[in-house]
Design goal:
Layout: H1 8-13, H2 15-23, E1 72-77, H3 82-90, E2 95-102, H4 105-119, E3 124-127, H5 133-137, E4 144-147, H6 151-163, E5 167-170, H7 178-191, E6 195-197, H8 205-215, E7 222-230, H9 261-271, E8 279-286, H10 291-299, H11 301-304, E9 317-323, E10 328-334, E11 346-349, E12 352-355, E13 360-363, H12 382-392, H13 395-404, H14 412-426, H15 434-441, H16 443-452, E14 458-459
Parallel strand pairs: 1-2, 1-4, 2-3, 4-5, 5-6, 7-10
Antiparallel strand pairs: 7-11, 8-9, 8-14, 9-10, 11-12, 12-13
Helix pairs in contact: 3-4, 3-14, 6-7, 7-15, 8-9, 13-14
Bound molecules: nicotinamide-adenine-dinucleotide.
């Protein structure tokens, strides 16, 4: 892999990372932070406040209907992770890849080569400079722009994309600061374009299985969920020419949860966050920082050039979110400890409990489902669990399982892309909109705020501005809605 030609100093000048520093001024910022040290003054519709009046000229987007399209024309920026989205689009009979963009010319050309090989038509290539994407999003033959770049670019690219009349499909996390989250919401509402965060974990087989059981009442009244991003990334965080060039920077910027959405997205959908319930406040606590420093000091990656870096992000961050309906969500983040991968993916209610890694289900009244188990003191046996899967596999997964084989992350990347692009094709609202992208992403800054104040509760903004009370369930979560 080649290294994007961006120095660290230039990265710190870009809006998101500089915005993070400005927004977190006064918190525990570590060495090497060149960001400003004063709070960003509140702006209209861009405040930390919980409910703000909707600025004039904006309309809600939770039920945004757009013109149906015969074919969906996509463009992709950032062709490492973004290549997955190119490949998924090439497998969709109703999608065309019109243009591809990466600073690195060879990455853009390789993506274009693949399109040409498989479809016989070469997309237009934009490459060579860090602003070339601006020309691409101005084209008048694109419906959707995928943004799969380092986090600092997500928001500027998404804002411009929507201003230019296209839907913005953003990799995770959509934004790093609360202010950026409001910008996504306000621009989506003003332009009436979708701002969809590409949270592929919402489309995992187990996640859709649990979502379907939740909607079908298996868990009864929902009370508690647990989720995480636990993934040993120590080697990746020092990789040159990839995420190591930018992702480790956040470990000296913020002590909190740097990657909440893989765990939180699915459980937010189980709980109907944004459609009947809403996040209310968060408390967060971090362990001491040890593993990244230890790895750096022992392995001396890249010839020992990182010796001066001071990491402030605790190895394990644990946050608790309380919802308006009194439910609780535990969210963990640990990307530096020697332990196996887990998103926990747990849900509990009056009717039963599910835990993942590995998948386990306990049911309060197994007999009502014709199961062999006698009660909920033990997890269901293999036969019972298989019977529940047979009955409650989500219709979307049933429909797409075969086609998803061989695609990224056990097929969930394909299911997600099929679903979002199919919504755009039909002109219906995607399963998650700007409010969800903002609510799930704002945990980054807010967990940091709570950690920095001795784990005090921090209010979570209501990006729907009160609409959550009346918003319908997501189509994907509504057992009565057709997904065909
Ligand atoms: N959902 C998932 O499972 C998943 C998996 C991996 C990464 N991601 C997300 O995808 C995004 C990208 O991650 P990655 O691993 O591909 O990072 P990466 O650093 O490996 O690749 C980023 C690519 O973007 C290009 N790029 C950077 N700035 C650009 C600009 N201004 N214009 C055009 N191209 C630019 C780089 O040249 C590079 O090819 C991140 O947001 C990450 O969190 C999500």
């Amino acid at each position: 892999m080649n290294t994007p030609n961006l120095s660290r100093r230039r990265f710190l000048q870009t809006s998101a990372l500089a915005g993070l520093g400005a927004s977190l001024a006064g918190l525990s910022l570590g060495g090497g932070n060149a960001a400003a040290q004063t709070m960003t003054p509140p702006k209209e519709g861009v405040d930390q406040g919980r409910v703000l009046p909707r600025p004039a000229g904006q309309k809600p987007v939770h039920a945004l209907i757009t013109h149906p399209l015969e074919r969906v024309r996509v463009a992709v920026i950032g062709l490492h992770r973004g290549l997955t989205h190119v490949q998924a689009a090439l497998d969709l009979e109703f999608a065309d890849v019109i243009a591809v963009c990466d600073i690195l010319d060879d990455r853009a050309r390789q993506a274009a080569d693949e399109c040409e090989r498989r479809r016989g038509k070469r997309p237009v290539v934009y490459s060579g400079t860090e602003k070339i994407w601006e020309q691409m999003v101005e084209r008048d033959d694109i419906d959707v722009v995928y943004i799969a770049t380092p986090w600092a670019w997500h928001v500027p690219m998404a804002l411009r994309t929507m201003e230019c009349g296209k839907h913005a499909f953003l990799e995770v996390a959509a934004a790093v600061t609360v202010e950026e989250c409001w910008r996504l919401v306000n621009t989506s509402e003003r332009t009436q374009r979708h701002c969809v965060m590409l949270e592929n974990c919402c489309y995992g087989e187990n996640e859709l299985f649990v979502l379907n059981m939740a909607r079908e009442g298996v868990f009864g009244e929902l009370t508690h969920a647990e989720c995480a991003y636990i993934h040993d990334l120590r080697r990746v965080l020092f990789e040159l020419g990839g995420e190591g060039d930018w992702r480790r920077n956040y470990h000296w910027q913020l002590d909190g949860n740097l990657y909440p959405t893989h765990g939180l997205g699915p459980v937010a959908q189980y709980l109907g966050i944004g459609g009947g319930d809403q996040f209310k406040f968060i408390v967060s606590m971090s362990s001491r920082e040890r593993n990244l420093t230890k790895h750096r000091d022992e392995q001396k990656p890249n010839g020992g050039r990182h010796a001066g870096e001071k990491y402030v992000c605790g190895d394990m961050n644990t946050s608790l979110v309380k919802t308006e309906l009194g439910r609780t969500i535990m969210i963990q983040h640990d990307v530096v400890s020697p332990r196996p991968y887990s998103r926990i993916n747990a849900l509990s209610g009056t009717g039963g409990t599910f835990f993942d890694y590995p998948a386990r289900l306990a049911i309060n009244d197994p007999k009502s489902y014709g199961l062999e188990a006698r009660g909920s003191h033990e997890w269901l046996g293999d036969r019972d669990l298989a019977a529940m899967r047979q009955r409650f596999t989500h219709p979307l997964w049933r429909k797409l399982a075969e086609r998803a084989k061989g695609h990224g992350h056990d097929g969930m990347d394909f299911v997600m892309n099929w679903r979002h692009l199919d919504c755009v094709r039909r002109g219906t609202t995607p399963d998650s909109v700007a409010y969800d992208a903002a609510a799930w992403s704002c945990i980054i800054e807010l967990s940091g705020r709570s950690v920095a104040t001795g784990s005090l509760p921090v209010v979570i903004p209501d990006f729907t501005r009160g609409l959550w009370k009346t918003m319908k369930l997501l189509a994907i979560a509504d057992p009565t809605s057709s997904l065909s």
